[in-house]
Amino acid sequence: MTNDIRNIFDRIAPVYDQLNDWLSLGQHRIWKEMTVKWSEAKAGDTCLDLCCGSGDLAFRLARRVGASGKVYGVDFSLAQLEIAKQRSQSQYPTPSITWVEADVLNLPFEDNRFDAATMGYGLRNVTDIPRCLKELHRVLNNGAKAAILDFHRPKNSAARTFQQWYLDNLVVPIAQHLGLKEEYAYISPSLDRFPSGQKQVEIARQVGFAAATHYTIANDMMGVLVVTKA
User: Fold this and answer.
1) Local structure of residue 123 (DSSP, 8 states)
2) Among 115, 146, 128, residue whose Cα is nearest residue 203
3) What tens digit of pLDDT does each residue of 101-151 get?
4) Cβ–Cβ contacts within 10 Å for residue 101, how many?
5) Contact call for residues 136 and 117 (beta carbons, < 8 A)
6) CA nearest 228: which of 30, 50, 60, 40?
7) Does the pLDDT of residue 49 top 90, yes or no?
8) pLDDT of residue 211
9) CA atoms of 79 and 93, how far apart (whole Å)
């Protein structure tokens, strides 16, 4: 399963940002900015961005922590990391980001390393959500926050119907046009498997987070789980 997902993200890497823009009508930028704000990253912090993809959240974190801070972007897709590196070099001033190829279920960092963390559209794709959150808890400093952005199924039936229509009639056809129909068809089943916001809160508390809150955005089609380590 992990290799299948890695292969998907390797294949979509060249058009990932363009597709995100089209599919969210540019709104993903606002949601990502909100996520970074909820992480409470500040100047001088050492921060972590899990499932960093092509770097959007990592770049936002880098702007927040400034020249005295440090950001680590982690992804298991080498193709995505290569694009993140290229994008990083085109920014001025060049942000202080270390790109790390690694599995979020087994992070190559010592305990209590990071002052804040983010994750965008990654938790839904990991094979073991409790283990991922437990690893995140392990590497965060005491008092640190993490903000985790992802799609999920809305509770409201009308919003649910709209979401499925949107996926079937806009997302998959656009992906098909780019030769990536199979790669984006996986989104719908991944949403069916993904725990609700309340369940995410429960899991976060079970693995040791002192506080966990799930904020719904975009008519409940999107959510941000904010967790705090005691």
Assistant:
1) G
2) 128
3) 999 999 999 999 999 999 998 999 899 999 999 999 999 999 999 999 998
4) 13
5) yes
6) 40
7) yes
8) 98
9) 24
- Sequence letter at residue 31: W
- The edge-to-edge listing of strands for the beta sheet with 140-151 is 97-101, 70-75, 46-50, 114-120, 140-151, 222-228, 211-217
- The distance from CA 39 to its chain's CA centroid, rounded to whole angstroms, is 12
* Strand-pair category, 70-75 with 46-50: parallel
Q: What is the Cα–Cα distance from 89 to 228, expressed in whole angstroms?
A: 32
Contact 211, 227 (CB under 8 A): yes
What pairing do the DSSP bridges indicate for beta strands 222-228 and 211-217? antiparallel
48 forms beta bridges with 72, 117
- What CA–CA distances, in Å, run from 151 to 66, 131, 197? 29, 20, 10
| Kind of pairing between the strands at 140-151 and 211-217 | unpaired
Whether the predicted model's global pTM rises above the 0.85 cut: yes
Which residues, 6 or more positions from 78, have their beta carbon under 8 angstroms from its beta carbon? 10, 101
- Quickly state the pLDDT bin for 23 (edges 50, 70, 90): low
Structure tokens at 94: 């060049």
